[in-house]
Amino acid sequence: MPKPMISIVDDDETAREGTMDLIKSMGFVAKAFPRAEDFLNSDHVHGTSCLISDMRMPGMTGLELYNRLIAAGNTIPTILVTAFPDERDRRRAHQAGVICYLAKPFDSEDLLTCVHSALEARGAD
C-alpha cells in the first residue's frame, strides 16, 4: 500500500522545507508549495491525504484554501499552522472543520498527532 502523501503550503521557505523534512522523517511522502494557488493548480490535490498549510500567506490564506477545497468537493483533512496564533482564527478554523491549528514553532509530536488524526479522518492511516 502506498504511503500517504502530505502536502505542505507555506510561503516561508525555511518553514516549508523544515516541515517537509519533518514529515519525511516520520515516514510519509511530502510535497511542498510556496503558495495556495500553486497547490490548487498542481496535480497533487487529489492525491493528497493530509494538507498542512500556513494560516497567513500573501494572496490566499490557509483557511481560505481549506474552504475553497471543501467548496470544490475536495475534503482533504487540513492542519493549519501559524506564527500569529489568534483565538478567533482558531475558532473559525475548527468551526470550518480543520483538524488542527498549531502555533509555530510547533512540537514535532504535536504535528505527528495531528497528521495521524487527519489520516484517520481520511481513512488512510
Could you characterize the architecture of this molecule?
By secondary structure, this protein is α/β, with parallel strands linked by helices. The chain has a single domain (5-122), classed as Rossmann fold. The chain is built from 5 helices and 5 strands; from the N terminus they run βαβαβαβαβα. Strands 2-1-3-4-5 form a 5-stranded parallel sheet, with helices on both faces. β1 (5-9), α1 and β2 (29-33) form a beta-alpha-beta unit. The longest helix is centred in the last third of the chain and has 15 residues, at 108-122. The chain is globular.
Summarize this entry quickly.
With 125 residues, this protein is of the alpha/beta class.
Task: Describe the secondary-structure layout.
Blueprint: E1 5-9, H1 13-25, E2 29-33, H2 36-40, E3 48-54, H3 62-71, E4 78-82, H4 87-96, E5 100-103, H5 108-122
Parallel strand pairs: 1-2, 1-3, 3-4, 4-5
Tell me the domain tally.
Answer: 1
Q: Give the terminus-to-terminus CA distance.
A: 11 Å
* 3D shape: globular
- The CATH superfamily appears as Response regulator
Mean pLDDT: 94
The percent of residues in helical segments reads 40-55%
Could you list the spans in which at least 5 consecutive residues all have pLDDT below 50? none
Radius of gyration: 13 Å
What is the CATH level 1 assignment? Alpha Beta
The beta-strand count equals 5
Strand order of the largest sheet: 2-1-3-4-5
Counting H and I runs of at least 4 residues, what is the number of helices? 5
| CATH fold type | Rossmann fold
Main β-sheet, in a few words? Answer: 5 strands, parallel
What amount of the residues lies in strands?
15-25%
Query: Mind telling me which CATH architecture this is?
Result: 3-Layer(aba) Sandwich
Structural class: alpha/beta
Q: What series of H and E elements makes up the topology?
A: EHEHEHEHEH
